[in-house]
Each structure stands twice: as structure tokens, then as C-alpha cells.
Amino acid sequence: MPATCVIGLQWGDEAKGKLVDLLAPRHDIVVRYQGGANAGHTVVFGKEVYKLHHIPSGILSPQITNVIAPGVVIEPNMLIRELTNLEDRGIQPRRNLMISQRAHVVMPWHILEDRAINKTVVSGESIGTTNRGIGPCYRDKVGRTHAVRMADLVRPDLTTRIAEIVDAKRVLLSSIASKEDMEELNAERIAQQCHQWADTLGPMLADTTYFLLDNLDAGRKLLMEGAQGSLLDIDHGTYPFVTSSNASGVGVSSGSGVPARWIERVIGVAKAYSTRVGGGPFPTELLDDTGQKIREIGREYGTTTGRPRRCGWFDAVAVRYTARLSGVHYLSLMMLDVLSHFETIQVCVAYDLDGERVDRLPSEAETLRRCKPIYETLDGWMQDVSEVRSLDAFPTNARRYIDRISELIAVPIGVLSVGPDREQTIFLI
Length: 429
Ligand code: GDP
Ligand code: IMO
Ligand code: MG
Known about the structure:
- By secondary structure, this protein is of the alpha/beta class.
- The protein has two domains: 3-97 and 207-427, Adenylosuccinate Synthetase, Chain A, domain 3; 104-203, Adenylosuccinate Synthetase, subunit A, domain 2.
- 31% of the residues lie in helices and 22% in strands.
- It has helices at 16-23, 76-88, 108-117, 134-143, 158-173, 179-183, 187-201, 208-217, 251-256, 289-297, 316-325, 365-370, 396-409, and strands at 3-8, 29-32, 41-45, 48-52, 65-68, 73-74, 97-100, 104-105, 121-122, 125-126, 205-206, 222-225, 263-271, 274-276, 310-312, 314-315, 330-334, 344-353, 356-358, 371-379, 413-417, 425-427.
- A ten-stranded mixed β-sheet has the order 11-7-5-2-12-1-13-17-21-22, sandwiched between helices.
- A hairpin with a 2-residue loop joins strand 9 and strand 10.
- Helix 3 (108-117) packs across helix 4 and helix 5 packs across helix 7 (187-201).
- The radius of gyration is 22 Å and the shape is globular.
- It binds guanosine-5'-diphosphate (GDP), 6-O-phosphoryl inosine monophosphate and magnesium ion.
- Guanosine-5'-diphosphate binds next to helix 1 and strand 3.
């Protein structure tokens, strides 16, 4: 099994981090290949809770190499903080972490720009980004002239280059950024910071593309860790309410440099209900007590920003689409324990669009906004499942729910999760 992929099928936070941590020991290398510090992946075992933003969730297994591939955008201050946080807890991430020289750097001006334009209304609502500079950094990557890559941090002409970019950015940002923000655009200070980043991160820089290709040729196994979720994919998600990278399965090859011929298995991760952070259409959103109940029981508050997540019922139309788009072989269905407290559970099986029944996700956010969910109602199980450790041990109604979701999205179940801990997982693969 050369490369297995873990891909979010909703709007992020499906518990990809938990699954990657558990699957990591079956592999040799774990790869993060898109997104950046907008991601927040949680790994829990016992009383230990780890929140990872850039570092792959395989880092807790010391025998595994972890790679941050070219498609990731790196905010060095945050990455260094992640490294020291892990070190403070007795883990030695610098030994088994490699960072691509090709990965782009989220520079201070990207964060200022994200902050300055985040409130802009687009298609009737603001996107509500994580303010981590993700969109502006990817924009500069595509634009090329003002981009900084990790390898540039160790170049001798770095100081001159930073001065040139700061001059250009001051012109671009002067009309949108606040006075305080503009003061942060100090070329000398930023260049100095870059030198510090180079000192700390330089030893981990490598050509990860050759490293991965060589290891695949040598028969090693890779685990590709997606960030965000397929509905946030820049090309195939609920645009413009998306992130700036290919967060669905289609992004694995471009972000990592691992060609499609090596990808053998894709595991799609979905919650047993839906959540979304930030703006954008969300047909099954519950703005009532039921939504609040899901939020409280599921502790649905952002790992990166702490924002309350919007909550709603499972949307089988959306997940059927993303499971096909991401080429999913198995479904990993998470947070089943959260639904133990509902007498009835709704699943959206189609949309009502202006009086017509549709079973495909519309490509326009404006059209999706008009879609009303058509629900199928299933009986809840009203029984704690957090101690369940085998498929047979689930209450009948929970089994019915799991089977119905699998049927609706036409993908077999591979993994079930009944709590945040490593132990609270049932593997069928
Ligand atoms: P990611 O971004 O996809 O890695 O997901 P996050 O870490 O942002 O959010 C998932 C949250 O749910 C984390 O706090 C996990 O510890 C927690 N979690 C994972 N699996 C389960 C589960 O089966 N049940 C419950 N109640 N929580 C879970
Ligand atoms: P993980 O990997 C949930 C959302 C933001 C916003 C939109 C664009 O933890 O699942 P950005 O800062 O990327 O420009 O924001 O995308 N978003 C996420 N939502 N989980 C994430 O990552 C997310 N990363 C970005 O809330 O709506
Ligand atoms: Mg998250």
C-alpha cells in the first residue's frame, strides 16, 4: 500500500488529526501537503491533548518521518512555537521532521492583508478566514514576484529582497491597513526575523520531493494528511467560501509531489453531523437549541481560532459529492458519541431547490444558499456509545444510522469513532 490519504469530506475539523495519529504506525512517512496554520489538528491520548497546525500528526510516533511538503504555506513563528511546545512535553520533533525548501512562507504582510480584508463582504457575507495570512500567501505564490519560499530564508541576498518586497507591500497595503499595522512593515526588523527563522528551521529544510519519490521507489509507505475539508477546496468547494488550496483528494499530488500512480487508498473522514466555521452556505445548519446541543456535547469550538462552530445535521448530498470527488475507498465516521443524546436524528438526503428535488451539490454558493434540506428521520439510540469497541456492540439504532450513511454516500465504513481518545476507535480496515 504505497500511499494512503486521509481527506476531510466536510468543511474541516472532521477529526483528521486523530485518524492520522492512529494510522501513522502502519506507515513510514506522514506528509502534510496543503494549507498552513489555518489547520488545527487534535490528537488525544489519556490526559494528553496535542494541537498541531503545520506539523503532521505522525509526530507523536518517534520512528516515523514527518514531511511538510511544497504545497504547505508556513508561518515560521507559529511553526517554531509548535516545535517548542512539543519539546516542552518531552517530544523531539526536530529529529524526524523535514520541511520542503519549496514551501512558501507566510510573511507578516500576508497576515496584515488577511486581517485588513477579512471583513470584506463577498456574495452577501464575509468569508471569515482564520486570519493566518493563508489567502494572501497563496496569492503571492501564484503571482510569483513577491513570494518568499523557505529556501529563500537562507539566501545571501535575503535582506535586499525583503526590502524590495516591503516597499511594494507598503504601497499596496497603505489604503487598506491600519496605521499600527503599517508600522509593523519594517524591512529591517522583518529581515532580522527571517535570519532567526533560518537559524531555527534551516537544519530541517530538504528537497522533500526527491525524498518522497526515493522512499516510494524503496517500497516505503506514505500517509498523506489532508488539511481543511473537501467542501473548502478552492476549485471544487463552496466557492468563494473556501480556503485557498486544494483541500479535497485532488490536491494530494500537486501539494506533495507524489504522483497519482502511487495513491492506493483514500480514507474520507466525516463527522456523524456537520459543522462549519466562518461564512458561507450551510443547508443543514441548525440555528436552534438542537444546534446548540450538538455544539456543547461535541465541544464544537475551533482548534485554531476558538470560534464557535456552526452545527447541523449530516448532509449526505454534500458528502456523496465529496466522497466521489476525493476518490474515497473507505469512510471514517467520527463523533458518533455526540449523537447519543438525540431521540431522533435527521439526515439530509436531497435538497429542495425552488420547489424541485435535487440530489447534486450546486456549483454556485448563491444556489446552494437557496437549497432547503429534505430530511429522512431516523430513531436515535439514546445510549452511551463511548465505550463501544466493536461494530457488534453498537445499539441497533446506531448500527442503522451508520449503515444508512454508508448507503447514502455509497462508500463502505472503514473506521468508527466514539470519542476523542485513541482508544475510542473501531477499525474495520
Ligand atoms: P481536524 O482538524 O480534522 O484534525 O479536527 P479538529 O482536531 O479540529 O477537531 C476535532 C475535535 O473532535 C477534536 O477536539 C478531537 O479531539 C475531537 N474528536 C475526535 N474524534 C472524536 C469523537 O469521535 N468524538 C468526540 N466527541 N470528539 C472527537
Ligand atoms: P482543519 O485542517 C475548519 C475555514 C475558515 C474560513 C475558510 C477560509 O483544522 O480542518 P482561511 O484562513 O483558510 O483563508 O479561511 O476556511 N477553514 C477551516 N475550517 N477547519 C480548518 O482546518 C480550516 N481551515 C480554514 O474558517 O471559513
Ligand atoms: Mg481542525
